[in-house]
Design brief:
Distance between the termini: 53 Å
Largest sheet: 2 strands, antiparallel
Strand content: under 5%
Structural class: mainly alpha
Shape: globular
Order of helices and strands: HHHHEHHEEHHHEHEHHHEHHHHHHHHH
Strand order of the largest sheet: 1-5
Number of helices: 22
Radius of gyration: 24 Å
């Protein structure tokens, strides 16, 4: 495992108020109050070039990547959604996450990386919003779109999260419900796209935007497409609102992201900003999943050699079942050299300058296909046309457009996964690529092809869609180490809240637990104790529990102010 130094970050703590109170207690109640409560070091207004540089940081950290070692990305993507979506299977014996185990310190690290981007973005919005000394509606609109983009996979993964209070400068940052967060996504995306639709020929963050170079016409398309994505995500929970938002996004000025020329890709700028997949792929921690092999090889998918490298020893495209034990990882059948890594363009740090995919046109087409099946207005398109356009867009993206027509018409189906017991398994499904005759088949086809199109860097979206739809069908895990889950694919519904929140933001943490329907912090601690006891012998468990209680069970000091 690559050693990564994690930076401790508070979701919103500002020491100044506490210091001010202490000063007041040691002097008088009112003398010099205003002067003492003024932060003389705070930059009131940032220049446009400074905002541009800050936005670069917000973009890069927004994909949970804050350093050249890709630590946050490894912890929250590679060891979480990559495995849960079954893009990859873990081959590192030290990592139990593919067996559904929630490793708190890893989640802490990924959470911390994300918050660096979130708090940076909050400052940008404070500097550009209508109440700022120098409002900048165009930069604010782009920041709103990026806010929706980076927060969506986080609330999909955790449920309630800090949202409205991030960057509030307080030592308590309460969590927001997932429903309220999604409603705000619709609000800010609507506001942002309305502004950009009147200014699509202009630029913003031109010197700092490593995705679109400040091109507002492309940010506008991304904003409309994210609004459609959000509508699809909540379509089973709040169908009426979802329909209204989806149809508004489809009909919105500026259009949707439907052409691969508009794909959102983050351009690395060495040495500080690299493609995280290109960095971590050389560590030998993962290989192609068995589910990916079953689907892609069964379909004879022309993207196979564009996605995967032939196994070193066999020259074949081979995958591995998810959820291997440490012993099973050591078997030659599951070894790295006998199974497929990512293609060479993503295989080592030298290739970490490849663009990192943020959003692709194929996803928009598949979302429109599902919207049509929902009975929503998508214009003149049929569900079949949208589905086939999605496949074509993905083929174009990966340089195999000439194979699209034959693939779209194919009646081939996923194949069995072969190997020694207990790894062999029957085909995942019997659906072909060619668009089916029933809605049930069509929905599975859309979900399967969307999953394939999101590879390799949008596994968070793939995992969220799998939990929502059940598609594509994925193999169960060989082993499960999580007492609250099972070997069934999709048994993990969400990530646990970061344990670090219990100490740095205990009241906020409790608000999140309560939004999930829990009884609060005490229940969470007791659950932790139960888990520790299940993993260790009595003496070790007692040590952990005793010290954990010492940290958690404390009296809050009350400061008296005059």
């Amino acid at each position: 495992m690559k050693t990564t130094i994690m930076k401790k970050i508070n979701t919103g703590f500002n020491p100044l108020p506490v210091l001010t109170v202490l000063i007041l207690l040691s002097s008088s109640c009112t003398k010099g109050f205003e002067e003492l409560n003024t932060d003389k070091t705070k930059i009131e207004v940032l220049a446009p070039k400074q905002l541009d540089k800050l936005f670069t940081t917000a973009e890069y950290a927004g994909i949970t990547n804050t350093d050249q070692w890709a630590g946050g990305y490894q912890l929250l993507v590679s060891l979480a959604s990559d495995e849960q979506a079954q893009f990859f299977s873990c081959t590192q014996a030290a990592f139990p996450s593919d067996r559904n185990e929630m490793v708190g310190r890893w989640i802490n690290g990924g959470w911390s990386s994300f918050l660096q981007g979130a708090t940076t973005l909050a400052e940008i919005m404070n500097q550009t919003g209508p109440s700022a000394p120098a409002p900048d509606p165009l930069r604010e609109a782009v920041a709103k779109i990026w806010k929706a983009y980076i927060y969506m996979p986080m609330t999909d993964a955790f449920g309630p999260i800090p949202y409205t209070q991030v960057g509030n400068g307080q030592d308590v940052v309460n969590y927001d419900s997932q429903e309220s967060i999604y409603m705000d996504f619709f609000k800010i995306l609507t506001e942002a796209t309305e502004v950009l639709s009147q200014n699509a020929d202009k630029t913003a963050f031109a010197t700092g935007d490593i995705i679109y170079g400040g091109d507002l016409s492309k940010w506008l398309k991304l904003g409309n497409s994210l609004r459609l994505r959000a509508a699809i995500r909540v379509s089973k929970k709040i169908p009426d609102i979802a329909k209204t938002q989806a149809e508004a996004a489809i009909a919105a000025a500026g259009g949707l992201l439907l052409d691969i020329e508009d794909n959102a890709e983050m351009t690395p700028t060495p040495p500080n900003y690299l493609n995280p997949l290109g960095v971590i792929s050389e560590w030998g921690e993962f290989r192609m999943s068995a589910s990916m092999e079953s689907i892609m090889k069964g379909y004879q998918d022309p993207r196979v050699p564009m996605y995967w490298a032939p196994a070193k020893n066999t020259g074949e495209f081979n995958g591995i079942r998810n959820g291997l034990s440490i012993v099973q990882m050591s078997e030659s059948f599951n070894g790295n050299d006998n199974n497929s890594n990512v293609v060479p363009r993503f295989q080592n740090a030298a290739n970490a300058t490849e663009p990192h995919t943020i959003y692709v046109a194929a996803e928009t087409w598949f979302n429109m296909a599902e919207a049509k099946l929902n009975g929503w207005n998508v214009g003149a398109y049929t569900a079949k046309e949208c589905y086939e356009n999605g496949i074509t867009a993905s083929m174009q993206q990966w340089g195999v457009a000439g194979s699209a027509a034959a693939y779209i018409a194919s009646t081939k189906t996923p194949q069995a996964f072969t190997g020694p017991a207990p790894y062999s398994a029957p085909p995942l499904s019997d659906i072909p690529v060619a668009f089916g005759a029933t809605e049930e088949v069509q929905r599975e086809q859309i979900g399967t092809q969307k999953w394939l199109s999101l590879y390799p860097s949008m596994s968070g979206e793939a995992w969220a869609e799998f939990r929502r739809t059940g598609y594509p069908k994925l193999y169960p895990r060989i082993n499960n180490d999580n007492p609250d889950a099972s070997t069934d694919a999709g048994s993990v519904k969400r990530l646990i809240f970061p344990p670090s929140e219990i100490t740095v933001n205990a009241d906020g943490y409790q608000s999140g637990i309560e939004l999930l329907g829990g009884k609060g912090l005490v229940e969470s601690i007791n659950h932790f104790f139960k888990y520790v006891k299940s993993r260790f012998n009595y003496e070790v468990a007692f040590f952990y529990i005793k010290n954990f209680k010492y940290i958690i069970v404390k009296t809050k000091p009350k400061l008296r102010v005059c």
